[in-house]
Design brief:
Length: about 800
């Protein structure tokens, strides 16, 4: 039955409630009538007359008395009270919904004593004549409306008890007012429900973090597809008692209330229901809590929302946080603030969590503030703001959303609660849990309180797995790849806020100890770089800049090729040592940090900057450590090297020449550091203009490196490469060609055919082949090299472009028949 329903209420104080009732009636297939606006006597008469033409009357009554017409109204009653009485005289069923809360007292009449008396008298009259449903928010408003409408329809039809409801059987919370970025999710949800696999009923579990908007997605889906079902019923599934009561009410609405088990009755009615049906089990703790309640038969859809991530294959559907761009758009639209940059930064600060976004926008709107102001405040007073604001569509703030889960974890799974507190201290990035918890020696650095809950996880992957499983039941952690888990930044913030500053400090110290122990010992080892990469953000979050772990992290950045990042981090480390009373400007660690800044600055391309920093450091090292201390001599070597790379080859040559006898005397003539000095002396001798001198020095160095290191050691091969180069520069192109030709097969065998050094040797072989008079041979060698460089380095790499130029040049030479 489609009912014509007259909706009566005051306007100023009940505008959103009125709209929610109208929306629900339309969604349920009824025809709402709401013609009254307080603009004159003719409107009063027309509105009262229209009541008699309606099937049902709905009153929403707050704490405002409303407009009182002057004429023809001897009792001086408000339009709303007149409408209530007219509906009674017409004999149509009346549904009354009484608001118990007072969101804004300024919109009520309670501050005016004479009007307040009228308000309370009208409410007493309503309570005496009908059995009103009380509500404090939109959820309880719609629940009362749904129950009242069904009862009123039953009275209108005068059907005997137990007969099925007329029209759609409907109980849903209000449709979400604000929903963004969920179209793909809603499409996927509908695809799962409408696929042609032939099995019914179909079950989908929407899971995700508290505040991700699971219920909003479920309700939006339900409202969009109301025309496809005859029953749409939402069960609050967190409390077993409330859930059982919901089945009793649904059984009555389906005409299946025979006094037996209401779950069995509902299952039986839905199994044979002629129209499709949709049941929503909202906020289910886990699968076990709702599995016995899911109808086993019937052409229906079962939609479950839960924080638990563990569901049978094919049933689970993740409700993720929002993409930053979508979240920023939502903030701007919801708050009315057009500051796009502030919206984007705030969206990232809140991690795209719909509840946090709605709460922020509601707070900005309520306080007439701005997104930029809220952004600044939440960075300073996060805990306070996460507890403020009244988000539409949510019954809790961010601060309270996870509090119950945290309390339950502390009682039922203390190790899981401990793990969450550890993870809350780290960066909001994936955590390699097995790596973090591997070193049992870190247990000695845990406080007794921390060790009591988290100590058992160290070195025990099974215990750690159990803790992760417990956290996943509340979506407090999310799998983020092989062995990785992720905690949302706001979960971290709320978790940290649950404990005192003293306890929080103990967990931060524990997290730092575990990260320090997990960082690999050798940052130069490529095999360890993936672990370094995973631990990098967490080291930055919890480790002191003066810690050994941060030194290793900084060196890893440099060794793995991130030279500017290594330079910048070592600068922070050096600054921290300078400002720390335990170190000071002349402490060895401070000076070594400054040495590292200089070195990685040079590697990052600032040769002159590296040279100047080494030059400033050298006199300090000489005074504090001594002229022949290893660090002092290493600094002299680096100063010479970067002097050369900064363009002063002669200066570099002279500095290396002065350093060589000291190295030979202290370390010996064949020590690797001594040989390194000899190699650099030869190089800069050549770059200073003495190619023959460079050739002779490399010729003398080669047999020593072959004997000390090995004939195929990388340094030995580099020496052979340099010897060939300076042989050619000294005028012997054929000799250079022959030396490169002999070196190439060794490079291929030792380093691989496409190693950068191998390709460099091939390029030099082609170059000196051409200069030795064989232009056609050079062209052919460059022609063979070009596609390899394009594939390995890319078409626009400088070495690829140089090869292309050489190919063209030697091709032209070959066509002219010369060199």
């Amino acid at each position: 039955m489609v009912a014509k329903v007259y909706v009566s209420s005051t306007i100023a104080d009940l505008k959103p409630e009125r709209q929610a009732v109208l929306d629900w009636l339309v969604a349920a297939g009824h025809q709402p009538v709401h013609s009254y606006t307080p603009s004159g006597e003719t409107v009063r008469e027309s509105s009262l007359d229209e009541i008699g033409m309606c099937d049902l009357y709905v009153l929403i009554l707050g704490h405002r008395y409303g407009f009182v017409p002057a004429d023809g109204n001897p009792e001086r009653l408000s339009i709303t009270q007149l409408e209530f009485r007219r509906a009674g005289r017409c004999g149509i069923p009346r549904v009354a919904l009484l608001r118990t809360s007072i969101p804004d007292v300024s919109l009520s009449d309670l501050q005016d004593q004479s009007r307040a008396v009228l308000v309370w008298a009208f409410r007493a009259e309503v309570e005496a004549e009908v059995r009103p449903a009380q509500f404090s928010d939109e959820g309880s408003l719609i629940q009362g409306l749904s129950t009242g409408i069904q009862a009123a329809l039953a009275k209108l039809d005068q059907r005997p008890a137990g007969r099925a409801a007329v029209g759609p059987v409907l109980r849903l919370a209000p449709r979400p007012v604000f929903l963004a970025g969920r179209e793909e999710l809603l499409t996927e949800l509908n695809t799962r429900f409408t696929g042609d696999d032939g099995t019914w009923p179909r079950v989908v579990a929407l899971y995700g973090l508290g505040g991700a908007g699971k219920t909003s997605v479920a309700l939006e889906y339900a409202y969009r597809h109301l025309g496809e079902v005859g029953v749409a019923w939402q069960f609050p599934a967190e409390d077993p008692t409330v859930l059982a009561a919901g089945f009793g009410e649904l059984a009555a609405q389906l005409g299946a209330g025979d006094g037996g088990d209401p779950v069995v009755s509902v299952h039986g009615a839905l199994a044979t229901h002629s129209a499709g049906w949709l049941l929503v089990f909202d906020n289910a703790p886990d699968r076990a809590s709702v599995a016995p309640l899911v109808p086993p038969a019937g052409r229906g859809r079962v939609l479950i929302t839960s924080r638990d991530q563990i569901w049978p294959p094919g049933q689970a559907l993740d409700v993720p946080v929002l993409d930053p761009e979508i979240a920023a758009e939502f903030l701007a639209d919801r708050s009315g603030d057009t500051d796009r940059q502030a919206a984007l930064e705030l969206a990232e600060e809140l991690g795209g969590l719909p509840l946090a976004l709605e709460q922020a926008a509601a707070y900005v709107q309520a306080t007439a503030g701005s997104l930029a102001g809220y952004l600044g405040s939440i960075r300073q007073r996060r805990d306070d703001l996460l507890a403020r604001g009244e988000p539409t569509g949510y019954d809790q703030t961010v601060a309270t959303t996870w509090s119950l889960a945290l309390r339950r974890l502390e009682e039922s799974a203390p190790s899981a609660a401990g793990l969450l507190r550890l993870l809350a201290c780290l960066a909001p990035e994936p955590v390699p849990l097995a790596v973090l918890l591997a070193d049992t020696r870190a247990a000695d650095e845990l406080s007794p309180e921390v060790a009591a809950t988290a100590g058992a996880l160290l070195g025990d992957l099974v215990a750690a797995g159990d803790a992760v499983a417990a956290l996943r039941r509340y979506s407090l952690v999310t799998p983020a790849g092989d062995g990785l888990v992720l905690v949302h930044r706001l979960v971290q913030a709320v978790t940290r806020a649950q404990v005192s500053a003293e306890v929080a400090s103990q967990w931060e110290q524990a997290a730092a100890a575990l990260v320090e122990a997990a960082i690999p010992a050798n940052p130069a080892l490529p095999a360890a770089w993936p672990v370094y990469a995973m631990l990098l953000p967490h080291a930055q979050a919890v480790l002191r800049l003066t810690s050994g772990g941060m030194w290793r992290i900084a060196n890893y950045l440099g060794y793995s090729g991130s030279y500017p990042a290594a330079r910048d981090l070592f600068q922070l480390i050096a600054d921290a040592h300078l400002s720390d009373d335990a170190y000071g400007p002349e402490h060895r660690d401070t000076m070594v940090a400054r040495i590292s800044v200089a070195y990685w600055a040079g590697e990052a391309g600032d040769a002159a900057g590296a040279r100047d920093q080494y030059a400033a450091l050298l006199p300090i090292l000489q005074r504090v450590l001594g002229a022949e201390h290893p660090d002092t001599l290493a600094t002299r070597g680096n100063l010479a090297y970067w002097t050369g790379l900064a363009g002063d080859a002669a200066g570099a040559r002279d500095q290396f020449a002065a350093l060589l006898p000291i190295r030979e005397r202290i370390l010996g003539a064949e020590h690797p550091d001594t040989l390194f000095i000899r190699g650099n002396l030869a190089t800069f001798t050549g770059q200073a203009g003495d190619a023959a001198g460079a050739r002779d020095q490399f010729a003398a160095l080669l047999p020593i490196r072959e004997r000390v290191l090995d004939a195929e050691h990388p340094d030995t091969l580099t020496t052979r490469h340099e010897l060939a180069h300076w042989t050619g520069v000294a005028g012997d192109a054929a000799g250079a060609r022959d030396q490169y030709a002999a070196l190439l097969p060794i490079r291929v065998r030792v380093e691989g055919a496409e190693h950068p050094d191998t390709l460099k040797t091939r390029g030099n072989l082609a170059h000196w082949t051409g200069l030795a008079g064989d232009a056609a041979g050079a062209h052919d060698q460059y022609a063979a090299l070009l596609p390899i460089r394009e594939r390995v380095l890319g078409a626009e790499h400088p070495d690829t472009l140089a090869t292309r130029r050489e190919l063209a040049q030697w091709g032209q030479q070959a066509e002219r028949g010369g060199s």
